[in-house]
Amino acid sequence: MAESHGPGSALSALAGVVMRNDGIVDGFTLGTVRVSGDDATHSVVQMAASLRRDDISYVLVWGTIISRYNLVDVGEVSSSLGVPVLGLSNRRRRSAEAAISAKFPERLGRYRALAPRRAILLHTGSTVYARISGCTGTQAASLLNTVTRQGRMPEPVRLARLLAGAARLSLGGGSAAVDV
Question: Per-residue pLDDT tens for 18-44?
């Protein structure tokens, strides 16, 4: 899953791609989250559940702090869906704690409770950073190496970002061009 929002948007488009490990796309799901809201975890769970599939074996989410500090709790998503969940990002960032404390102090405890980020070196030579729930770091690395064709972005996430960018048009969020 991945999100996309435009400047001044109240809603962010959230898109999910169901992809088999052999690279075949097998479904899509679309939803929204509030920009600066607190509904990201719930939206990810609802979107995955709306697929009504029992063959989804993991969920990848591009970002655990999305749509201007809307937190995705990978532990809660994993527990709700009964599958491993990885919250991914492409660069090592400083802690968002100071910004969250200043803008949304009521979310600070939830931010601190998020799974720690781990650096995972991929077969492509790139590093991806992951918050992991429901599997080991070794299992997460194996999964990411299976679904990452090039660079550091897993293929289902790359497609979800493209789809979210296109879906943003229906929310009035301006251009849908997405650079992946």
Answer: 999 889 999 999 999 999 999 999 999
Nearest to 1 by CA among 159, 166, 128, 151: 159
Residue pair 3/62 in contact by the 8 Å Cβ criterion: yes
Which pTM value belongs to this model? 0.91
Q: pLDDT for 163-180, tens place per residue?
A: 999 998 877 655 444 444
| Vertex 79 angle, CA 155 and 153, to 5° | 15
**Cβ atoms of 159 and 7 closer than 8 Å:** no
Domains of the chain: 2-171 (3.30.2170.10)
pLDDT digits (tens, 9 = 90+) for 68-111: 999 999 999 999 999 999 999 987 777 788 899 999 999 999 99
Beta-ladder partners of 133: 85
Cα–Cα distance measured from residue 24 to residue 59, given in angstroms and rounded to the nearest whole number: 16
CA dihedral 90, 153, 173, 131 (to 10 degrees): -50
Residues forming beta bridges with residue 130, ordered by sequence position = 88, 118
Torsion 124-86-93-165 (CA) sign: positive
In sequence order, what are the residues at sequence separation of 6 or more whose Cβ sits closer than 8 angstroms to the Cβ of residue 22?
none
CB 168 within 8 A of CB 4: yes
